[in-house]
């Protein structure tokens, strides 16, 4: 039984919508999926998972949310090596630089990125949510 954990931070609800779709995509007869907002998650949740999805919107000058998500991601440096991982998040403006930076950081931590980071402009469409489900399925 594969344990998949989806952890996210969402300000407006867009990334939360994406997280729910990623979790749905990771559900199968052979998986147990946990969906957690970052304030309820710990590095142990990541360490104990067979696959991990992290979601955070682009904030400010294309960075991760700095109060909760940034310290959480920093805490994962020693626990994500070799772990299948996908990243996702919504954005309002910019070119997705925060996602490219986040991918490089996770690779530097030794994570095994199962797919390119998925970014969605503002509210996810049905098509975007379908892409989120496909992203979640890559962790199986």
From TrEMBL:
InterPro entries: Flav_short, Flavodoxin/NO_synth, Flavodoxin_CS, Flavoprotein-like_sf. The keyword Hydrolase does not apply. Gene3D superfamilies: 3.40.50.360. Its cofactor is FMN. The keyword Hydrolase does not apply. One of its GO terms (molecular function) is oxidoreductase activity, acting on NAD(P)H. PROSITE patterns: FLAVODOXIN, FLAVODOXIN_LIKE. Keywords: Electron transport, Flavoprotein, FMN, Transport. It comes from the Bacteria. Coiled coil: none annotated. Residues 4-140 form the Flavodoxin-like domain. SUPFAM superfamilies: Flavoproteins. Belongs to the flavodoxin family. Low-potential electron donor to a number of redox enzymes. This is Flavodoxin. It comes from Geosporobacter subterraneus DSM 17957.
